[in-house]
Amino acid sequence: MPPADPQVFALPPGVDFARELVQGLVQRMRDEPPEAMARVRLILNAGRMSRRVREEFDGLGTRFLPRIELISDLARVPMPGLPAPVPALRRKLELACLVDRLARGLPGFETGSGVFSLTDSLLALLAEMQSEGVHPEVFERLDIQASHAEHWRQSLAFIRIVSRYFETDLDAEGRQRRVVETMARTWADRPPQERIILAGSTGSRGATRLLMQAVAALPRGALVLPGFDFDMPEPAWASLCSGPIPIEDHPQFRFRALLDGLTLSPAQVARWTETLPEAPGRNALVSLALRPAPVTDQWMREGQALADLPAACANVTLIEATDPRQESLAIALVLREAVFRGKKAALISPDRMLTRRVAAALDRWSILPDDSAGQPLPLTAPGRLIRHLARLPGRKIPMESLLVILKHPLVATGSALRGAHLRLTREFELSLRRKGPAFPDAEALRDWGGTADPERQHWSDWLAALIDAVPAGGNHPVSAWLETLSALLDGFAAGPGGSVAASELWLGEAGQAAFRTLSDLAAQDETGLTVSAANFADLIDTLLNEGQVRSTLAAHPLVTFLGTLEARAHGAELVVLAGLNEKSWPEAPSPDPWLSRKMRLDAGLLLPERQIGLSAHDFQQAIAAPEVVLSRARRDSEAETVPSRWLNRLLNLAGGLTAAQGPEALAQMRARGARFLDLASQLDLPQERLAPAPPGLRRAPRPRRVRASFR
Asked: What one-character-per-residue DSSP string does 413-469 give?
């Protein structure tokens, strides 16, 4: 049982969490000797938070630092009798064997889904079971005969078999929970004498929540919660768990669940520091707008207490663009103006396509943002070539696919005849478009190259030999498909008469990441899994999608692109919340082909609303920044968009508070956004019709390019 008064602290949205965490810790230890800080164990939630905390300590001068750890590091802590976690790729291939047998035995099960897409969802389910401590015996007690379809009965029978098979083989999530359980038992018997502080986590996963409860129960343990809503009254807190189904899509629900486990009320959570947020009035408005659905009648009563909304929203700008292109240009102008004013700016959005559009627009002024997510590996040059070649087997090669590969910037880079290769590719393309065939094969290539030109004949023989090596189809082991893909990669990168060692295939960060991906697949393929060409291409896609490549160019120090998780640790003066539409903020929950929502609730697993609640919490923290820009596009490439539920609530609430001058505040927010939309419209005009650029939009010097080398 936890002590009578667990040490649970929090910081409100709108304060720099990393800075206040360090300031509060230093203040609490001001009367202790300097070396006492080195005995403090500080457990953080993410690597970026760890870097920010170290930077804040560095800014305080020479001093001892605490022992900074990450929650994810616990999965690798040595424990007697606890083996190392099973590699994720090996687990995926083992599960794929079982899923493949299921698909063969039940052809109608999830028709249209590939083997590896089903495998990824099953892998996530098993990891969630281990993290949440859900034993396979739970599925034995689920009664689905009367109220569920036959599909769910079949999937549940399969999960019962698979979950027992993997009960002893722990992945990283399962091993982390075992380590946390062992630590909690040890601490309960022999509490450590050192000070242990866990900061920055919301306790959204079962293993993390268990660790937080164990730390809070220690005599010298403390929790520091991020983005805690001190403006939320007790009736609103009580409504989060009042019904039969918990309101997990509320931003503060995870804190309520954690406090219930500690037998604490929200009123017992203390402030870590007394620093107030930049805009307390805005925090109160957002807190009221995000109230749970059962108590939204509080809008009419508590909303009248909000005063002077124009002042509360003075630093909030609303951009409602007509399409994603205009939105990206307007955001780029916002960031460019921030650079001119010397302000630290951050763009936060889960829409990666939008962030890439903004990065392209910023290139007009030679501003390279520091993108925390980097570039997806499938979009890099090596990743694109691997994906193109992985989709060649099992079908006739279309003319377009072959030409895309031949024109790839990495093809024939290992040959001294790269220029000749491009010239012959152009001549071959002209011949194909004039005379065909639509599906060129090795025979057609040799016929085209059978001339008196030895260079043309040599080139066509090289390409014909590579096409002959492409398998026609059928089911083969993953290792055989991988050997074929490696041979094609080496052949195309080497070029006619060249070598892959002299090519640029594996150079740079992207080349190294792609090489590691294929090497890991070759090292872990011990299952003998036999798949079709299409399924192997899907496997390559899923493996590449797990990789990210950071840019090797010198990024601008004032402009950062962040994901929603990384934004918790970042302190920026200007924050842009972009893509505020449904299915983006929040993202639509991924469909679960294995368990229905009712089955998940009965088994004690996480509901789909959990991710929505985490996104809502990230939104509540980010909108509390000193200066905020909210942006959305009214229409995408397909149809009109729906505003994000949080933005919709905020605008509707503010617009209805006439006594607090809500309509005036909205008009000012839209007016500030209209200025950037007008400038964005000018950027789309021809160059001769552009007005002279304002001082803040003049071209900046290009950053220095850092050469990447393969070592």
From this structure: TTSTTHHHHHHHHHHHHHHHHHH--SS--HHHHHHHH-SS-HHHHHHHHHHHHHHHT
